[in-house]
Write a structure and sequence with these properties.
Elements: H1 3-15, H2 37-54, H3 60-75, H4 78-92, H5 96-103, H6 110-130, H7 134-155, H8 176-195, H9 200-225, H10 230-249
C-alpha cells in the first residue's frame, strides 16, 4: 500500500481518538501524515456542522457549545493541550532550558489555564456571532488552521528533533514537500468556499490571519527556544483557528 494512503489512516490516529486501527504503521509513515491534516480538519468541521444542524431549534449558544465540545472530545483536546502547555512554558520560562522543561510538565499552570479558557471562550463567541454563517466557521476554521502548522514546519526548524521523548519528533520530519501539499489543500478549500458564495474579502482575510499567526508565533518561539515544538504547533493551530473565525466575522 502506498505510504500516502497509510499516512491518511495514521493521521486520524495522531490527531483524533477515532479507532481506525492499522497500528503499528510502516516505517516512514509518520513524516507524511501531515499532508492529510487539513483534510482531517475538514471532516471534523463537517461533523461539527452536522451537530449544529441537528440541533436546529436550540439557541445558537447551545448549538455552538455542543459542537465545540464534541470536537474537543474527538481530538482529545490535542491542540488545546499544546496551547495551554505553550502558554505555561513561554509565560513562566525565562530561558530556553526552562521553557523546554516546563513544556514537558504535564501539569497545567495559571498561564495555561487562562489561555485555554480565553481561547475557547473566544472561539465560542465568534461562532455564535457568525449565526447562520457558523457552518463556514466550522469547516474553514478546522481545516485551514491545521494547514498552518504543516506549512510552518516547512520553513522553520524543530527545536526537539534529537529528543527521543518528543511525541511529535517523527512528524517534525515533515518538510517542504509536505508544506506545499498543505498549501494546495488551502487553495482547494478556499476555492471551494468561494464557489459556495463566500466573499473574496473574507477569504483573503482568513489567509492573512493564518499568515500573521504563523509569522508572529514563529518568530517569537524562534527567538525564545530556536524553533518549533509539538506544543507550539498545537498553539499555532488554535490561534490560526481563532484568526480565521475573526476574519469570517469581520464585515
Amino acid at each position: 500500500m502506498p505510504v500516502w494512503v497509510t499516512a491518511l489512516r495514521a493521521s486520524f490516529t495522531f490527531l483524533t481518538r477515532i479507532p481506525v486501527g492499522g497500528f503499528p504503521y510502516p516505517e516512514g509513515t509518520w513524516k507524511w501524515i501531515s499532508i492529510w491534516f487539513p483534510f482531517v480538519g475538514l471532516l471534523l468541521g463537517a461533523l461539527q456542522l452536522a451537530i449544529w444542524w441537528v440541533l436546529d431549534g436550540h439557541s445558537d449558544m447551545t448549538r455552538c457549545l455542543i459542537a465545540v465540545m464534541v470536537g474537543v472530545i474527538i481530538t482529545g483536546g490535542f491542540h488545546e493541550d499544546g496551547l495551554s502547555d505553550s502558554a505555561d512554558a513561554l509565560g513562566g520560562g525565562y530561558d530556553r532550558a526552562a521553557v523546554l522543561r516546563i513544556l514537558k510538565d504535564s501539569r497545567i499552570g495559571a498561564f495555561g489555564a487562562l489561555a485555554l479558557i480565553l481561547v475557547l471562550m473566544l472561539k465560542l463567541s465568534l461562532l455564535v456571532d457568525l449565526g447562520t454563517m457558523a457552518p463556514a466557521g466550522f469547516l474553514l476554521g478546522q481545516s485551514l488552521s491545521r494547514a498552518v502548522p504543516v506549512m510552518q514546519l516547512g520553513v522553520q526548524p524543530y527545536a526537539r528533533r534529537d529528543d527521543a521523548e518528543s511525541k511529535s519528533r517523527d512528524v517534525a520530519r515533515s518538510g517542504g514537500v509536505q508544506a506545499m501539499i498543505a498549501a494546495a489543500w488551502v487553495v482547494a478549500i478556499v476555492l471551494g468556499a468561494a464557489y459556495a458564495g463566500l466573499s473574496s474579502a473574507v477569504l483573503v482575510g482568513s489567509l492573512v490571519a493564518m499568515l500573521v499567526v504563523g509569522v508572529v508565533v514563529g518568530v517569537y518561539v524562534q527567538r525564545r527556544v530556536g524553533g518549533l515544538t509539538g506544543d507550539f504547533l498545537g498553539a499555532i493551530q488554535q490561534l490560526a483557528e481563532v484568526g480565521v473565525l475573526l476574519a469570517l466575522v469581520s464585515p
